[in-house]
Design brief:
There is one protein chain. The chain is mainly α. The chain has a single domain (5-387), classed as MFS general substrate transporter like domains (Growth Hormone, Chain: A). It is built from 15 helices and 2 strands. The chain has a two-stranded parallel ribbon with strand order 1-2. The chain is globular, with a radius of gyration of 21 Å. The protein starts with a strand and ends in a 24-residue tail after the last helix.
Length: 411
């Protein structure tokens, strides 16, 4: 089936497990098995094995985000490789790189293998977002995306639960866990390549650089989302290990709570986007994030305890999971042929700040951790202002609330 090409309409006659939506679900489950395990072990691994401080962890995440900044390269690759094939190859690369992570327990080795796994992760995510918006019907997209978030959270939950149960019981090594988790992701990617046909979207995707002025609000929200998210990804879990001394099984237990909450909440979030629209949902997300980041800062300035920090971490994840509303906003305003190239451009824009913020804020972290979270709250505030410009019913020609008050710009 790997080299059979069929249209989305023809795919409806396939057995349910071979349909495009199921492949999206398989990929949604496969990616977190490697990435979530890597993420769960990362802070303990680099502190215990390589003696990282906030400076080194900042540099690691800067290196990790360089491929995201270069995601625009996907546009060149899809000239020669079909999107679906490229997505599965990237997923395979993520799995293999994760599997061999513990073989390189030095600063240089960790940075190198992180770069390789990050290429797989970011190129997969770019293609995955594009395929989701091409293969899902616009009316049902918010709900289906909510279910895909739940599937990813479920896969992460299983990986984390196994870590909590087995890490101390069987005295597992970092090498064993990385090999198993990365190997499973690689095997799923290989199986998906051979078991599924190549699905063709109704409208061919442009294979050139696309940057349209009428998408400016989407670009702005992507840039702020990337900058704000970096602070959470880099420093929130690091704080739990550095300040509160969390061990692997404890930080993993926190992740389990996180993803259990996401599994339950994500489908309802999808329904909320369908009912209330992207504007209200995104505004709710950003208001919540402002409060969470300010409270993070309070942990350092006022000495608030570990229970609050853990609660905030879970809330943080829940708010961030609402970000798929940004995908459906773009789906509503976009020309279908623009989806693939714009996914690549958006990923690059999303990572503009990511290539320098972690390293710079690593130096600020060692001086004033609370200031780092204060900066994140400010970024969430800017995102809130941008979200207020989204119309209640966005569509082509009605991309922002300003669309009817200013002359329409040339594309």
């Amino acid at each position: 089936m790997a080299f059979t090409k069929i249209t989305l309409e023809e795919a409806k006659s396939l057995p349910r497990w071979r349909q495009p939506q199921v492949l999206l679900g398989v990929m949604a489950a496969a990616m977190p098995i490697a990435f979530a395990t890597w993420n769960a072990l990362l802070n303990n691994f680099v502190i215990e094995v390589a003696g990282f401080t906030g400076v080194e962890i900042g540099w690691l995440h800067t290196v990790r985000e360089i491929p995201g900044f270069l995601a625009i390269g996907v546009i060149a690759l899809i000239i020669f490789i079909r999107e679906q094939v490229l997505g599965l190859v990237a997923l395979l690369m993520l799995g293999v790189a994760t599997a061999i992570t513990a073989w390189f327990p030095s600063l240089g080795g960790i940075l190198t293998i992180t770069m390789l796994s990050s290429i797989g992760f970011h190129y997969f995510e770019t293609i995955n977002q594009s395929l989701q918006l091409q293969w899902l019907d616009r009316k049902r997209a918010p709900q289906v995306l909510g279910w895909l978030v739940a599937i990813g959270s479920g896969a992460s939950l299983v990986a984390y639960a196994l870590l909590v149960v087995t890490w101390k019981t069987f005295d597992l090594s970092y090498n064993f866990v990385y090999l198993v988790s990365g190997g499973i992701t690689a095997l799923i990617a290989g199986a998906a390549f051979f078991l599924y046909p190549q699905f063709e979207s109704p409208e061919p995707q442009l294979k050139t650089f696309v940057l349209r002025r009428r998408y400016w609000l989407y670009y702005a929200l992507q840039m702020m989302s990337g900058a704000r998210r970096q602070i959470f990804v880099v420093f929130a879990a690091f704080m739990m290990v550095e300040r509160f001394g969390f061990e692997v099984h404890e930080i993993t237990a926190l992740f389990i709570i996180n993803f259990l909450a996401n599994m339950i909440a994500a489908p309802f979030m999808g329904k909320a986007v369908m009912k209330y629209g992207e504007r209200r949902v995104l505004m709710f997300e950003y208001i919540g994030l402002i409060g969470v980041f300010l409270a993070y800062g309070g942990i350092y300035y006022f000495g608030w305890g570990v229970a609050l920090a853990a609660t905030l971490y879970v809330l943080d994840h829940l708010f961030f999971s609402l970000a798929f509303a940004l995908k459906t906003y773009f789906q509503k305003i976009a020309d279908v042929p623009d989806i693939a190239p714009t996914a690549a451009v958006a990923f690059t824009i999303n990572h503009i700040a990511a290539v320098f913020l972690p390293a710079l804020l690593g130096y600020l972290w060692v001086q004033s951790p609370g200031s780092v979270f204060g900066l994140a709250a400010g970024m969430a505030g800017v995102s809130l202002l941008f979200a207020m410009l989204i119309p209640r019913h966005p569509e082509k020609g009605n991309e922002t609330v300003l669309a009817g008050t200013v002359p329409a710009p040339a594309e």
